[in-house]
């Protein structure tokens, strides 16, 4: 993300007047970039914090979305996934 200009994106948002206190600026990565730009942490520290926050978020999602939840339709990624998803959506829309 950093190699593709993430830090510059956040700087641009701040330069345009977006507050670092906005809820959207608290998303993983944005708050760390703000801290880098404010020279509170280094880029390497930001990357470390982002990895840790991402791992925590993944664990939280695993608790929210259980494999045995009957309300969730899970799909395996393979060549037929797109057709299967489209078929499932169509079925859901026509049965409501």
Spatial gap, N to C terminus? 41 Å
Uncertain regions: pLDDT < 50 for 5+ in a row? none
Assign the CATH class. Answer: Mainly Alpha
> Given the helix and strand composition, which structural class is it?
mainly alpha
Note the beta-strand portion: under 5%
CATH fold title: Helix Hairpins
Mean pLDDT: 92
CATH homology group:
Crystal structure of tRNA isopentenylpyrophosphate transferase (bh2366) domain
What's the count of strands?
0
From the spread of the alpha carbons, the general shape counts as elongated
Q: What can be said about the biggest beta sheet?
A: none
- The succession of helices and strands, N to C, reads HHHH
CATH architect. name: Orthogonal Bundle
- Whole-number count of domains: 1
**Radius of gyration of CA atoms, rounded to a whole number:** 19 Å
Fold and architecture overview:
- By secondary structure, this protein is an all-alpha fold.
- The protein has a single domain (6-94), classed as Crystal structure of tRNA isopentenylpyrophosphate transferase (bh2366) domain (Helix Hairpins, Orthogonal Bundle).
- It has helices at 6-15, 30-37, 43-64, 81-94.
- Helix 1 crosses helix 2.
- The mean pLDDT is 92.
List the helices and strands and how they pair.
Elements: H1 6-15, H2 30-37, H3 43-64, H4 81-94
Helix pairs in contact: 1-2, 2-3
TL;DR of this structure?
With about 100 residues, the protein is mostly helical. It has helices at about 5-15, 30-35, 45-65, 80-95.
């Amino acid at each position: 993300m950093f190699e593709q200009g993430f830090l510059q994106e956040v700087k641009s948002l701040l330069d345009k007047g977006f507050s670092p206190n906005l809820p959207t600026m608290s998303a993983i990565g944005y708050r760390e970039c703000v801290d880098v730009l404010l020279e509170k942490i280094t880029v390497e520290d930001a990357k470390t914090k982002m990895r840790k926050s991402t791992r925590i978020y993944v664990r939280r999602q695993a608790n929210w979305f259980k494999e045995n939840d009957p309300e969730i339709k899970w799909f395996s990624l393979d060549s037929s996934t797109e057709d299967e998803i489209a078929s499932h959506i169509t079925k859901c829309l026509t049965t409501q």
